[in-house]
Specification:
Neuraminidase; Immunoglobulin-like; 33 strands; 9 helices
Length: about 550
């Protein structure tokens, strides 16, 4: 199942969506009665919804609607299904009529109308509709009903729209986007490599998924042109990574040598692909250990030190809601131990993507919790005093009344990349660039004590290079140790098959690089990284090892 479709199917599981189906056999009570054939179509539509086939259900409901346009129940079901398909204008038309007709099996039609008005930006009308629906509830139901969450969201949306943040959101243009859906942006820490997922006819196999009516997804790549500062025209990744089936990027490692991939097997699993010496990508392998289950897993992001994996899972047990954010510690090569639920940020709703800044201290994720403006919004949480802070909505215009589904950010914190659909989209969801150079959190009372910046902690520098045999120029796979000026080991990492190493380090400190390998003379070098501000600094240090 494609990751950019998964959220819609999750929403189907909301029990509220199925209210009223139990009385489908009594649909004749409305102003217009249905034929036996119409009732059969309504039952078939219900079955299609239970299977996740919303488009087919919507088609059947509309066929019945053409026969009985003044039937309250039919308008109600058309409106709810249109809402779940993000056809909010159509939902508004159907639900307005349903409210007027007062169907017996659609007593919450006014709540759904309020939700449609919300997503159309009719916030005052939405508040009125939701309040009117709540006024009909009694006792504990009135205080515990989900309508309270929708009322809260409308109020929050008004506040965020009235207090826009200093951020400019721009479509990345035809070098990245097309008339087909694009999603899942990811960028290397040095800011030079950008990958994303797209469903285009140029993908491997060139076929369309009959279930979801889109082309099978592949992962594409673009490079930053150092002369122009612009992204080159994207092309499909080479190698064995992409297949004729769906291949969705989850993230690229900070050093650009590993891509995490979503595969729709066993309910949805996380795979990884490593870059070869020739620059092509290996066939993905499943992440080992305790990460993948028979439940849905996605959204994997590895910390820059490669010691932890953050990911989304719908596993039962210690989770809070639908999709939750989990973290697992590395126990072997792409193997991870028992995951921990990040309870500080998860909600009873759906968290659907996660990205950790290279400094390891700021997390960004997408959620449709009550703290969103209406759909999925992007949030951030900071690692402070050994725990994650209360998540903060990044604010408008980064977030909107629509859907913001994935987010990543450059190492310097000045540029973000987001999956969303806006008026200037080329076709469905596109990837947008977000200028964060003047960003401060929304000026809302509940955020007054939070970090004002887009990320916390010192700016990071990127230290990278190669280790080579001086005699024959061959790349060496050896251990590289990074110590602070007091001799404490900060990082220990092994060079890859190309002899490359990569590490992110806080600025304003002195470090010692130590390389000791059997049959070679040891090497030590001290480097000073200045206190950084603005663009992340990239420091290249390569070493030639001599025979001992």
């Amino acid at each position: 199942m494609p990751t950019n479709i998964k959220q819609g199917i999750v929403m189907i599981r909301n029990a509220m969506f199925f209210l009223g189906f139990v009385t489908l056999f009594a649909l004749q009570v409305n102003a217009q009665k249905m034929t036996a054939g119409d009732r059969l179509k309504m039952m078939t539509a219900m079955e299609q919804i239970e299977k996740g086939n919303l488009e087919d259900a919507y088609r059947l409901y509309r066929e019945v609607h053409r026969n009985v346009p003044d039937n309250g129940e039919v308008n109600y079901q058309c409106g709810k299904t249109a809402f779940e398909l993000s056809k909010f204008t159509e939902a508004h038309i159907y639900l307005t009529k349903a409210v007027a007709l007062k169907p017996k099996t659609g007593k919450d039609a006014q709540m759904w109308l309020g939700r449609a008005e919300h997503r159309l930006g009719m916030l005052d009308e939405s508040a009125t509709s939701l309040a009117a629906y709540k006024s009909k509830l009694k006792g504990k139901t009135a205080s515990s009903h989900i309508v309270n969450e929708y009322i809260y969201q409308v109020d929050l949306a008004k506040k965020l729209l009235a207090n826009p943040v200093k951020a400019t959101v721009s479509n990345m243009g035809v070098a990245i986007n097309s008339e087909y859906p694009e999603s899942n942006p990811s960028i290397t820490a040095d800011g030079n490599t950008f990958i994303f997922t797209t469903a285009r006819p140029e993908n491997v196999g060139g076929k369309m998924d009959p279930a979801f009516k889109i082309y099978y997804q592949d992962i594409w790549i673009s490079s930053l042109d150092s002369a122009t500062g612009k992204w080159t025209e994207a092309e499909r990744l080479s190698g064995e990574l992409n297949t004729p089936d769906h291949d969705a990027n989850l993230s690229i490692s900070s050093d650009g040598n590993v891509i995490f991939v979503y595969r729709s097997v066993r309910g949805g699993d996380i795979y990884y692909s490593k870059k070869k010496k020739n620059g092509e990508w290996r066939e993905p392998e499943p992440v080992g250990g305790k990460v993948n289950t028979t439940y849905f897993e996605t959204g994997a992001c590895m910390t820059s030190d490669k010691k932890h994996l953050y990911f989304i899972s719908e596993r039962p047990g210690k989770g809070k809601g639908n999709g939750d954010i989990w973290v697992a510690k590395k126990t072997g090569s792409f193997e991870y131990g028992e995951p921990t639920n990040i309870s500080e940020v998860n909600t009873i709703d759906d968290e659907s993507s996660v990205f950790l800044h290279p400094n390891g201290k700021t997390m960004y994720f997408s959620s449709n919790s009550k703290e969103s403006m209406g759909g999925y919004d992007i949030f951030k949480s900071d690692w402070v005093d050994g725990k994650w802070t209360k998540p903060i909505n990044l604010g408008y215009p980064i977030n909107t009344l629509g859907e913001e589904k994935q987010f990543t950010i450059s190492a310097d914190g000045l540029t973000g990349y987001i999956t969303t659909q806006r008026d200037d989209s080329h076709g469905g969801y596109d990837i947008y660039e977000v200028d964060l150079s003047e960003y401060e959190i929304p000026n809302l009372e509940q955020y007054q004590y939070a970090s004002k910046s887009i990320s916390v902690g010192n700016a990071v520098a990127i230290l990278k290079g190669r280790v080579i045999d001086k005699r024959d120029g061959e790349a060496l796979e050896v251990m590289v140790r990074i110590e602070n000026e007091n001799g404490k080991v900060i990082e220990e990492l092994q060079t890859n098959e190309n002899g490359e190493y990569f590490v992110t380090l806080p600025g304003g400190a002195k470090y010692r690089i130590v390389i000791k390998a059997k049959d070679y003379k040891p090497i030590e070098e001290v480097i000073q990284i200045p206190q950084l501000s603005g663009k992340a600094e990239v420091i290249n240090r390569s070493f030639l090892l001599e025979d001992d």
